[in-house]
């Protein structure tokens, strides 16, 4: 029997169109636009100037504090501008603009690394390398990995969970990475286990990825410390709290972290980035991105340099089809529509979804009929209809007392609402309003 979490959840159409599409390498762009805020926490501090020559992997922005991350140049070239550009948030953010040196062979002769299984660095050296090389959570949260791994002395920690769920519809970047870089991921898991000094790891994979399950079961059949946890297909199982509950039956406290129940969770993409950093001295300068949509000619998965304009990815799949209504950064449930295709790929860009007019149309919002569907599917046990009503009436303090900040913004409530009420939109607005209110009070 497949495991899953107990509270809430839905099963939207999977639409894993690109699950059999091998990862291709996207052509190196002529210009990259590298944001200095690609992580949760303080933006990085720019340490290059206009006209500076940079090499691949060179630090161009240093961590701005403990909860921050270094930024490295994804190409060899020349810094042409330090300016603000619209990023995937829809707001203008500071970027470092680099023109690719088309005569530098390092930009086009991508090195293929041989598998390296021997781990030579000490736990302290592993943590320092992860810090220096700008590794962040690649599942979407972009939390600096060195912060997550820097566990305080005396903390009880007994399990590492690897998130290979990829429960968002359409996205297949993690699935393909697991199939194509499975042995490297196993070594990456051992690296993190060494850094944390723990002897148990579980790789969580949903049952719609049977090929990945079979592959990892075969790779771990002689590994006593690494297991494969097969999961029922259910959204949002990739959420940390839901994954911990599904695989270990442990309840992460409200406003708590998996660490509070002895667990650390890492996405498979993060694990692979850690492998490359430790075994091959490679900073985080690229990632896998799914470019997909029902009407695209050549939907696929790509290795993409950080800072690549999204229009380069759209061109690679045959351009925008007629009748396109939205381009979404991420999946259809938690992703956000982008303003235009000039915005750059960041460390947190897992997918680009092209949606047609028919798919993007929202039903007319009507009065709540108190059906309770939003409450039934909420994986955090909240009452979304109540939270929306409170935010509409500007009762932000009351919404806060109803735990609005524990919402993981999965969108399940909006998905099932028969009255087409924009529940998640109002909850997001309420969360932002609550933060501003707390800032004023402090």
Walkthrough of the structure:
The longest helix is centred in the last third of the chain and has 19 residues, at 423-441. This protein has 442 residues and is of the alpha/beta class. Strands 1-14-13-17-15-16 form a 6-stranded mixed sheet. Strands 2-8-7-4 form a 4-stranded antiparallel sheet, with no helix packed on it. It has a 4-stranded parallel sheet with strand order 11-10-9-12, with helices on both faces. Among the domains are: 123-280, 3-Layer(aba) Sandwich (Rossmann fold); 373-441, no CATH class. Helices cover 28% and strands 19% of the residues. The mean pLDDT is 95. The protein has helices at residues 123-132, 145-149, 173-180, 182-196, 210-219, 240-248, 268-280, 310-316, 357-360, 373-377, 384-392, 396-401, 412-416, 423-441, and strands at 23-25, 31-35, 45-46, 53-54, 59-62, 71-72, 77-86, 92-100, 159-163, 201-206, 226-231, 263-267, 286-292, 300-305, 324-329, 336-337, 351-356. It contains 14 helices and 17 strands.
């Amino acid at each position: 029997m497949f495991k899953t979490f107990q509270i809430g959840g839905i099963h939207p159409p999977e639409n894993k169109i690109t699950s059999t599409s091998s990862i291709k390498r996207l052509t190196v762009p002529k210009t990259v636009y590298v944001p200095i805020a690609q992580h949760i926490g303080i933006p990085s501090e720019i340490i290059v100037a206009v006209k500076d020559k940079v090499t691949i992997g060179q630090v161009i922005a240093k961590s701005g504090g403990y909860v921050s991350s270094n930024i490295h140049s994804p190409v060899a070239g020349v810094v042409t501008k330090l300016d603000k550009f619209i990023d995937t948030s829809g707001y203008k953010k500071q970027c470092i603009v680099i023109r690719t040196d088309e005569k530098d062979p390092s930009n086009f002769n991508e090195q293929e690394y041989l598998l390296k299984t021997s781990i030579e660095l000490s736990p302290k050296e592993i943590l320092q390398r992860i810090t220096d090389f700008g590794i962040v959570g690649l599942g979407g949260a972009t939390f600096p990995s060195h912060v997550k791994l820097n566990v305080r002395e005396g903390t009880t920690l007994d399990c590492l969970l690897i998130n290979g769920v990829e429960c968002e519809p359409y996205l297949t970047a993690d699935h393909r990475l697991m199939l194509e870089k499975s042995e490297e991921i196993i070594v990456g898991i051992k690296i993190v286990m060494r850094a944390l000094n723990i002897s148990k790891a579980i790789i969580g994979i949903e049952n719609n990825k049977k090929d990945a399950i079979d592959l990892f079961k075969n790779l771990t059949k002689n590994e006593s410390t690494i297991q494969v946890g097969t999961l029922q297909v259910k959204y949002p199982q990739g959420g940390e709290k839901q994954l911990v509950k599904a695989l270990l039956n442990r309840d992460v406290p409200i406003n708590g972290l998996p660490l509070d129940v002895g667990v650390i969770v890492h996405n498979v993409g993060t694990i692979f980035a850690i492998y490359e950093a430790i075994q091959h001295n490679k900073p985080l300068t690229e990632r896998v991105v799914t470019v997909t949509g029902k009407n695209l000619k050549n939907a696929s998965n790509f290795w993409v340099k950080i800072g690549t304009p999204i229009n380069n990815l759209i061109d690679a799949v045959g351009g925008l089809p007629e009748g396109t209504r939205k381009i979404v950064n991420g999946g259809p449930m938690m992703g956000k529509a982008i303003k235009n295709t000039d915005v750059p790929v960041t460390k947190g860009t897992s997918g680009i979804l092209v949606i047609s007019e028919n798919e993007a149309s929202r039903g007319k919002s009507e009065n709540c009929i108190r059906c309770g569907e939003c409450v039934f599917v909420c994986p955090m046990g909240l009452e979304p209809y109540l939270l929306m009503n409170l935010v509409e009436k500007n009762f932000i303090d009351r919404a806060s007392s109803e735990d609005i900040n524990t919402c993981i913004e999965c969108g399940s409530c909006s998905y099932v609402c028969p009255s087409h009420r924009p529940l998640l939109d109002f909850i997001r607005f309420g969360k932002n309003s609550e933060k501003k209110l707390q800032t004023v009070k402090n």
